[in-house]
## 1
Amino acid sequence: MKNILIVDDNRMILGSLSSHLRFRLPDYHVLTAEDGQKAIEALEANPVSLILTDLEMPNVDGYQVIKYAKKKCPSVPVIIMTGSWSLDLRMLVCKTGVVRCIEKPFRFEELDHMVLEALAQGAQGSAAITSELADHEAAIRGRA
């Protein structure tokens, strides 16, 4: 099974996102981490297809998670979830190769679209996965 890792120190957001993605993408196993250290441990133990991470977290922050992920699994796409969007953050995104940023609060429909795009990009054009993602997107539209 393919894995998606969600990292956020806000338990309500973590629970809501994981429930939503489990419903929308039933072929993916959703892993969660409440902080950056747990995210790094999850990345050490599990291959992932996508990482969604908050930036501002205590101890090990999202920047460190991204740095670790880009060394360990450079082709895995990353989506940043942030409540504070700035020019500095935009520049950092370009430098680190992060696929997308989404500003909190966000609509699930917007996140669904970003997740599907990121998974397709991470698959690097694999026809089978692209077809599977198209099926998921059609299913998502049907459930919305």
## 2
Amino acid sequence: MLGLRVQASQSREYGAIAKQFPPRDGFQFTLGKPCGQALVEILRPDHHLLEEPGLGGEMLETVNLHLQEKGVRITTGTIVDATIIQAPSSTKNCEQQRDPERHQAKKGKPWYFGMKAQVGVDSKTKIIHTAVVTPAHVADATVLPELLHGEETRVWGDQAYRGQSEVIHICAPRAQDCTHRRYRYKDRIDELERAKNRTKSTIRSKVEHVFGVMKLNFGFVKVRYRGLKKNANRVFAVCALVNLFMVRRKLLQPSVV
């Protein structure tokens, strides 16, 4: 059986949430001792269980369906963004090489080796409705069509998604492109476009809260396994937990009969 252990400082809240998901279909929520910071550990008797097709995706889908039953619905605004999950770059292994399924990418000045967790987040509830895992060198804009559910009226994103208006219109015909525009040029700075980007950031920045919960609360800052399949399942499982965390107060409210 694949067990999912959740250790959190707010063990009482997690206990109440865990009761809403009784052990079934091979999944089990187990509460550990409070440790001051939330951690997620995938406990597995067999590593290949993590390679089962759609295992993590089914967890995310099940959680989102449960949240929908509780009144937390996906709206018509989507924020798209990506974060790099680092991987060990050491070659001290049997093959004496780095993981071939992951690559390096430059963000700012430093280089990072690992993979990208690319997500589509609801602009109102901060719920992750779509997640895609790629090597770190894959451009964010290339997976944009996979991050939209098609019913959007607005799509927010940083400058990595600029120039994708046609793609957005194809995937979501009613959507307005609210991604950031270029404002810095070689000889000038477009202050008007810069001000528009700042206004858009009031909505777009909500996705950073989601990544903060993923990395700081659940400790997902580095990959644990070789290959994308196992780590992708872990990404989807963590996304499901992030969704529960984001709406935990609503889930814990007593239901009115």
## 3
Amino acid sequence: MGYFDNADDCLKFFGHQRFTCGKGVSQPCQLRYLYYFEAFYRNKIKSPAAKRLRGIQFVQVPNMSGGGCVPFFEIYSCRGLDIRKQFTYPAQRQYSQKEQGVIFLLTEQQKQGMTLQGDVKILFKHAGFSNKVIFRIMFNTAFIQRGNYIKAGKMELSPEDIRKDKNKVIPEDLIVYIHFEDFCEVCNPYETEIEDLCQNCVEEIGQETLNEWRSAKQIMTEHDFPDKELGHQLLAGVDP
């Protein structure tokens, strides 16, 4: 950022420099985090946030076995290489592709017993002999859009290889909705600065994470991002 003023132009430039076909970053989760960086760079997100999961909905049903699947999901908390399983929503029944979708609703006890914050990975699996992974999604709770939900189509789910199944396993029009509620009714990552977070949020998020955000903000403030003129010097011989 600096030479280009938005993530889309950065991605196009990188793609054309990396491959003649223009394909650069293609993994959905990597793309999601690049747009997170843009939001952080523009100071649209001011602080980390904690959330609670309300439920998940599939529109359309994957075909993992016998024209449907027996879905369940696992939630992992991710701090670098420290990845820990936080919750498992058990398989309930076989869903057929003739049905309109799948709904996972959490009980009040499940919601209150699990707070999500920071980087989170959800693995969706098909219950069977090997509990095969259907797809996965990774996100950061600070960047969940207003309205407290994530909407992801097939092209926004990982791994990238699910796009190559010719829609035989994952329907082309499959959509995943992940619904959340706020851990705190006072603090808001779009408006609340780190130093203004309430004590409940400070305790839930933790000083280690807060200090990481402070350091990242300081780096962004102090870094001398290149303007167009300097960008041309740095990219001498390259046509953006």
## 4
Amino acid sequence: MSTADVLKKMGFIGGQYLDSAALPLAPGVEVTVERVEKAQVQRPGSKPEEKWILHLTELPGFPMILSAKTNRKMLIARLGDDPSAWKGKKIFIYRDPDVRFGPKIVGGIRIGGGR
């Protein structure tokens, strides 16, 4: 059974994008970058926004929205500034319960080491 199948069965993923609830705390899980693209993303009750989307080989159909500047900076620091060269590179993703959205602590996904 694939990682995505296990997470679906456990009820952790079922939406269009990867949710932080699907991930363990640091150090997290190692995943492989499949591709990066820009796409229109819309939260309920909000206008669509263009966001960077990270597709992961181990989680097909559940891409990660790169809305946090911290995650984009981490990817560039770890993998270089050319997203087309990220394919096949390994990173760690994990749930960080202390991620803030404005003044509110909401939790979120963070990116750790890469190779």
